[in-house]
Amino acid sequence: MAVRGGGSADLLVIFGITGDLARKMTFRALYRLERRRLLKCPILGVASDEISLEALVNRAREAIRASGEVFDERVFARLAKRLSYLHGDVTDEALYLSLAEQIGSDRCCLYYLEMPPALFAPIVENLGKAGLLERSRVAVEKPFGHDLASARELNSRLRAVLSEEQILRVDHFLGKQPVVELEYLRFANQALVELWDRQSISEIHITMAEDFGVDDRGTFYDAVGALRDVVQNHLLQVLALVAMEPPVGPSADDLNDKKAEVFRAMPAMDPARYVRGQYRGYTEVPGVAADSQTETFVALRTEIDNWRWVGVPIFLRAGKALPVKVTEVRLFLHRTPALAFLPSPTRVAPNQLVLRIDPDPGMRLQLSARGSRSWQDVHLDSSFAEDLGEPVRPYERLLHAGLIGDHQLFAREDSIEETWRIVQPLLDRPGQVHPYEPGSWGPQAAQSLQRDHHGWREPWLPKSKRS
Questions:
Q1: Which is catalytic among the residues 146, 205, 234, 434?
Q2: What is the pTM of this model?
């Protein structure tokens, strides 16, 4: 008997193929997979737009060209031959009868739901009623619920139709090269293994800054906010990879077990250690309520109460309309004693280890050396693109993993519920929203979280981004 959701997919079905995600990410990812000859199956797009296949192919061509990808007409021609299209209302059972008639019931499909989260469960339930899930997998984009209760409800509805092995929960941060590399950097290098605990590390800072506002996503964003949009998922998933113990084996469950242990060791966050901000002008964005209290910036302090990390403060911040676009993890090592052998004994700045996730992924080790007059920083930098070659893009990596049935890069439900548990007090008691100027580093109140600590540092930027 076939294993449910096992094996490589022989058909990719994309619900919402005419939407923004397909235009911005999916078509480019499929093109790159085709270029590397990793696509092995046909692709069926499903959406409500009543358009021809030719129009869909043209949309794909335009999206790939607009992405900046080097365009090869021969590669695109191979991709175009894989495409077909079915239009219909995803809430109408007739669509699924048409789908079943078109593809049959014995396919090993990957159904990729590029749809609003409210439609995840209805689509899956309709696929089940039509007998289209027996050997297939379903990929769903975050957010997975909007709080702990809704996340549990969504999981209950999905699990009524699917096994856990059939569900792929997509968080595109888990497909980013430096996030994938974290496991190797930490555990394959003895020099880092010896540094990676509370004996050496005094603080952990994680920043996700965007230099643009909400733009045309006001209606979506105003119902979500920065905490739900990027902290509960992206940043906590990265923190788990930074903090976890080494997995005991190569399977997805081996990795997810260790990530789940980190989340279980984290207490629920304290609203007294949480600052929310909103950039001036946000309420003028179309779709945003005039009296909106939705945050576009968050800063918070948390901790991990286990043997490796107890006593190490962890600071997270994320926001829109900040000075630069950058995502980084910064580890501060403990200070040395005063350097008594110098003519004027002094304490130097602590060493730092920085992993830049975006843009231009890389790693920096910041050391101290004595210059002509006093100590100064010395940076040992690695650019992953230069040292490791052209990176696989996140959606390219995630789509391929979904097609071949590799669960390593997808979030598991127990971890998702734990992250909602961790942030739930901040949702229940969010506190006031502090205004901040676009182009600043958020409200001044965010600095108070780090009183008696190192304070936020200017991010490490690629040379091309430095002013």
A1: 234
A2: 0.91
